[in-house]
Amino acid sequence: MAAASSTLVFYVNQNKIVEPNPDPEETLISYLRRKLLLTGTKLACGEGGCGACTVMLSRYLRPVTSGCQPRIENLAINACLAPLCSVHGAAVTTIEGIGGGGGGSGKAAHPIQERLAVCHGSQCGFCTPGMVMTAYALLRNHPQPTERQIDDSLQGNLCRCTGYRPILQGLRTFASGCCGQGRNCCRQGRPAATDSVNEEDGLSTQLTDTASFLPYDPSQEPIFPSELQLEADKFDSESLIFQSAFATWHRPTSLEELLKLKQDHPDAKIINGNTEVGVEVKSKKSTHGCLIYASHVDELRKFDVDETGIDIGAAVTLTELADRFKELITDDKLAEHKKRGLRAYVEMLHWFSGQQIRNVASHFGSESAAHELGAVLTFASLKGGIRQVAIDANFFVGYRCTSARPDEALLSIRLPFCGRREFQFGFKQARRREDDIAIVNAGMLVRFSDGDFDLVESATVCFGGVAPVTRVATGAAEALIGRRWSEGRRLVEAVAARLDAEFPLSTASPCAPPSSSAFYIGSVPNFAAAEGSHGKVGEVDDGSGAERLPLRPSWGSLLFERTPPGQLEKDPVGRPVPHASGTGQASGSAQFLDDLPPSLGEVFVYPVFSRHAAARLVSIDASAALALDPGVLGVLDRRDVPGNNEYGIDLSDDRIFADAEVRFHGETVAAVVATDRELARRASHLVRVEYADIRKPIVTISDAIREGSYFPEKLCRWLRRGGAMWIVLWLSERRTWWREKSALEDSCLVVPRDGGEFEVLSSTQNLSSTQSIVAGALGLPRNRVVARIKRIGGGFGGKEYRSIGTAAVAAVAAYRFGRPARCLQGWVNKEGLVVGLKADCYLNAGYSADISCSVCEYIILRMANCYNLGAVDIRCRLCRTNTPSNTAFRGFGAPQAMIGIETIMSRLASASGLTDRAIRELNFFRNGDVSIYGHAYEDRCWEECLALADYEARKAEVDRFNSSQSYRKRGLHITPLCYGIGFGRSFLQQAGALVNVYLDGSVLITHGGVEMGQGLHTKLLQVAARVLDLPIERLYISETATDKVPNTVSSAASMTTDLNAPAVMSACQQIRDRLLPYMHSEPKAGWDSWVNAAYMDGVSLSAAGFYHGAGIHMDAATMQGRPYNYYTFGAACSEVEIDLLTGDHVTRRSDIVMDLGASLNPAVDIGQIEGAFVQGMGLYTLEEQRFSPAGELLTKGPAPTRFPDSATSRKSSTCSCCAAACANSPGPCTPPRAWGSRPSVWPPPSSWRSGTLWRQPGGSTRAKTAMLAGPGSGSMHRATSERIRLGCADDIAVRHAKCSVLPENAVPWELKLGH
């Protein structure tokens, strides 16, 4: 055997890379960004859950199985999980390698980059490179993909801004059969609610003209490096060994070598795609001293088919497995009954993770083979030889532990074909349909009697998610034997009864919560119905549950007001101008904070977090961390803060480092400072913290009320008017914003400067508060601290204040070491008219007040929505809990307030006998009515939405559908919106701007707002271009910085454009006024000549603009005043279909009407509406905070949090997202109420995607359902698949309710906020 090589050879963007002895623990993305400075590939979640890190990996594959041909394989992979050592002999392509379009690369933009940018598919832009590279890998394999292939390829990519519609629109121009010809495109013929629009009416339906798109020519793509193809045998046959101080990497190329390694290193991890180990390292802080990469052992890559089954090598990837199965399914030579099991496998593989994970994952990592019915595993070891193990009830011996021996390696899996009398089916239920961990998964294999395909002869039923191990349901299988499949419901009930007895579930179990019972028992009728629907065996009732709800391709139509006749072509105001940074973001050249080159002497700061939620802090022992390596410079704690350790808004109760007490799980106790990012992370795990007086934490609102744990009354709000008559207790668990929680990008860099100055670059929406708090922490005046940022990767309100603590920690490190530091109810009369409301609202504020006082205030102000409530008595109290501090996020309390009043309206409709529509129209404000806080009101958009949605006709159709279906129900719901725009405080209604004109005529603009994807820079450029009468290309916005525009207000509350546009306009007008004399004297000279003439005369070409919105006032004691400049009005109508067996739901159609006035940029505004709509759907139908009883947040990162993915968007099938301007709206440059989109407006109405589920007409008696519980049960604002299923009033749900009751002194596994 030849000696193993220790040199890594691969290509990146056609450039050869030779790396001697690379670090076995380094990931590909770390190397790309750190060593090669290719920062277009973004690092976000670090666990393969968001797709921002996607790159393309290309390999030359030698045939292993007979009949296969050599080929070049192009795969989209997660660079955050891919070990650097795994790319030996491969070619990596990053976003920089496919095209330019920005950053001075000189390359033309790739057609994918161009189309995403022009179709407005990039907002904040942080996820865009990953989207581009996923699509690029698809086109390299399928130059003319189908729409289904495009949709499926994005399973592993998340976007928090766009709502996916513009991304899919841009990518679908590559689909086979698409002509890509703008208004005449063949895909414009789909039915739409706006088909009757006549553009002569001043309305338009097209945001993008695709006629000028560059054609896609696959022949122009870079070729695979010839060295890697010609010397493929050498690269593939070469054994590798790489070593570091902490780990060793082996890549064997023969079975003998693999087994020898396993014998010598029985604890070694065998990996293929690192999709499991990589997540463990990041999330569980696991370490592995020895890694064996076995993908190049030929015996593990085989795929052999014979008459009775298939032998699959253990290193065959899941993507390859699915592709080979699909080939067999379409093979006419294979008997039809043998394809039954293959179809089930293909279906289940589709729902397993995202495309990037499936492209590299195999059976090695997660032992997924253990779930395959009838499979036989072949293991091998040097001592024991070959051993075959059947997957049965004895295979799993514990959680993630099998009966495999330490010195064994899995060689292959034998999958038998279904026999002629056998049927196989798989089932998976998750909170998010695609790319999510299952609540329950199951498999069933049924054999029927020879000659009687209705009589069950034998059966095997297995379940995952009901115990720490896969369970074989022997009792359920026995209940099937000897029964006729056509018994339908009776058969289902018999099996369900056995399952209920066989798998008693406990709320205290992490692997078998009682809610699982609703799904595993519910899977039985799903099995039965699915087989029956194909006419193979039996039938169940009306067959309405025969198939899972389909994910249809989404399509959308848009309607917005065109620019008025006569507007100059060069005037960009009111036009759908693409995002100013769209091309740069799509090319990867647009820099985010963490993309900046490392500063000289830069150190890395890694926090040490508390492991308890309520305890006394005794001591911090950093000796082990400091002894790890000389590169560990120190460990900081509260004693190292030179200024104030406490900070806050209404209360100074936030702390940079924990002091005498820790108040929530994850509070920063200390911070390790090291010269290397990975070294800082590793050292942080060695810091030992001693605690005492560990107490049971207060986690939920119920806990806080029971313990009397509240913030001071001065932070609470109380509004009284008249005499309210009925009390409803409403519990609101407000969203948490915390580390790894919501936005994809979160970073901070603090650089010490000459003269004791500090420069803070922070991913924040609030630069001035960051400047202030950092200055306070360092004991410096504010003029010594400059905070700046160019763009941030999403914000949504969550980066308004919670990001400041990270900046303060980094600042303390920079101060301490002198080096740049990077830190990683209502009452109703009989006619249905509401005459009074009394409500007690409780908010979970977390451990600190943050800006919860303001949220409390806004909840009261927005409680009425569009309704005249008469007498009101609304009190809002803040609960103090041992959880991370909650903050502003997605509507600033408005979604919770509006969902509360809409729940009340729906219940009043039931009580009064009126329809949902009638009860709302009866209680609407009328023009001239006064709001609960004394502000006059107007009425808009309701009638337009009713007409657009064809509400009455569709409601009748929904009623007909529900009367004919047992297991599926539909609901139609229309919801109004009245959303006040403003901070509610006069001093916050201000903004500044600085405009500089240079002698070449170019214009540089600086303002006080932060660009986070909402199109702020784009809109301000449009305003400035109009005032200066210049083409928009001559204007530029660089960054936001406190030394250019001081005392900025937070970029939040949907006010950023409203405040900064007048300031920019003011500065531009000053410049123009100074140039007017030159324009009049030489009207034909042109801008450049006027500028130079003014300069020669000593006229200033720099101007500072300022704006203050007057008239805003609010009395916090009485809650009366004028908190808003104006209102944004809208209405949304959504039709939802649910599966009663699983809780799955799809939104069949949504019609949205929103009054934007005269929009500055319809493309940006509509994108904001769509993005917030889909984000709101995630908030109410997917995401759910879960804590351990010890106070640890369990839902961290995109995977457990379950952000909406592109499939969620496809489920929404948004038909019309219409930004229709209503009458009497002001013009686009007429202050004070015309400055563009309302990015926080649409989370409230998007919540009614779940609201449509609340009132469903009953179906048959057997399947009649009460649907979702209302606020009385505490679940009024969550409609996850789990809650929908458990809200169905059937025997299964009743049994669940019984087993959910905890025995005395028992501790639940998890606490769901909102329960």
TrEMBL record:
GO MF, any single term: iron ion binding
2Fe-2S ferredoxin-type domain location: 6-98
Upper taxonomic lineage: Eukaryota, Metazoa, Spiralia, Lophotrochozoa, Platyhelminthes
Cofactor note: Binds 1 Mo-molybdopterin (Mo-MPT) cofactor per subunit. Binds 2 [2Fe-2S] clusters.
Residues of the FAD-binding PCMH-type domain: 242-420
Family membership: Belongs to the xanthine dehydrogenase family.
Gene3D superfamilies for the chain: 3.10.20.30, 3.30.465.10, [2Fe-2S]-binding domain, Aldehyde oxidase/xanthine dehydrogenase, a/b hammerhead, Aldehyde oxidase/xanthine dehydrogenase, molybdopterin binding domain, CO dehydrogenase flavoprotein, C-terminal domain, Uridine Diphospho-n-acetylenolpyruvylglucosamine Reductase, domain 2
Chain residues that bind FAD: I270, I271, N272, G273, N274, T275, E276, V277, F352, L410, K428
UniProt organism field: Macrostomum lignano
Co-factor(s): FAD; [2Fe-2S] cluster; Mo-molybdopterin
Region (Disordered): 562-591
Entry protein name: Xanthine dehydrogenase
Keywords: 2Fe-2S, FAD, Flavoprotein, Iron, Iron-sulfur, Metal-binding, Molybdenum, Oxidoreductase
Pfam families named in the record: Ald_Xan_dh_C (PF01315), CO_deh_flav_C (PF03450), FAD_binding_5 (PF00941), Fer2 (PF00111), Fer2_2 (PF01799), MoCoBD_1 (PF02738), MoCoBD_2 (PF20256)
Residues that, per the record, bind [2Fe-2S] cluster 2: C124, C127, C159, C161
Ligand binding (Mo-molybdopterin): Q765, F796, R890, A1053
Amino-acid positions noted as binding substrate in the UniProt annotation, renumbered to this chain: E800, F892
